[in-house]
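Contributing new records

If you add data, match the layout below exactly. Sequence lines come first and carry their own label; structure lines follow with theirs. Keep one chain per record. Anything else will be rejected by the validation script.
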Amino acid sequence: MPALFSRPCRAVFAGIFALVLLAPAQASQPDPRVRELIAQLDLRQADTPSREHPRWQSPRRVVVFFADSAHLARLRELAPDARVEAASDDAAQRRRQLARADVVIGGCSAANFADAPALRWYQAMSVGVENCVAVPGLAGRGVVLTNMQRTSAPPIAEHAIAMALALARGLPTYGRAQQAGEWQRGAFGHARELGGRTLLVVGLGGIGTEVARRADGLGMRVIATRNSGRLGPDFVAKVGLPDELLALAAEADVVVNAAPLTPATTDLFDAEFFNAMKPGGYFINIARGRSVVQDDLVAALRSGHLGGAGLDVTDPEPLPAGHPLWAMPNVIITPHVAGNSDRDDERSWLLINENLRRYVAGEALLNVVDIERGY
């Protein structure tokens, strides 16, 4: 039987067919709420589309940690040509899953990266990714890393402000009196007003900006540090560089640590820093415990130079039983829960879903981490 098409025609059709196979899948439409989320939190998009990354390909196997059946169903809709599966609770089975995965959505751990040699994109389910970027040779593997930066900023910022207000109003003291069934009007002394006082945000990123916004709403003067320069929103009166930290601390009645954990911020808050703060100032840590020299913090509190501390993070976690911070009357400790809220889960999965949609379509991802910088 004669051929239906000439050899040149067959070559053209073969080329077109190959292009269709190699092209990214037809992009599904983004959730209408995503645009609002991007605008509200100022989420940053990568400079280049995913398809231009040398190791990009439409995902084939996606392993997901901490997802229920509804989340998995949505991810499968977004990546219909990939096998999307929940990470197994069995360690051996999970290693087999990761060995074949080119996309992983989960918590940062060296083990996950070691078990996933074919990995191309890793969506971390946390803001801090120090456990990811510390993996030896990760940058050389060409893995794209994205995180949850800014999605938990609203509740963390509210937590920081709540701690500052509680310290200023003496709520820990009155709380203990309540538990003892005692009406002690003079137990705390004079409460302090935060309006008109100065709050220093160390690390004016997503979380730091939300802290600054709320402090400004209380009538505070807000100053800050950031690595990238001196520009900041209108509600921040002054933005300094990291080498100006001590000078800025001298102006601050309240200091909030919102900086990512990097070699430069490890042990950043030491005796020199606390001595530079105003007498009676409050120190709030909603970032990472390892940024603080904890013995120096205890000494500054015991001496009375610091008026109080609010700690959502400590080093180590959990804080050991009998540690002096537990018993200090001017210290509030919460167990690394500042990011918890009734809305945080929705924001997180909106970002995860949108990034998977973008990756499948070869579009630019949100919240891409600079592995060399660590955030």
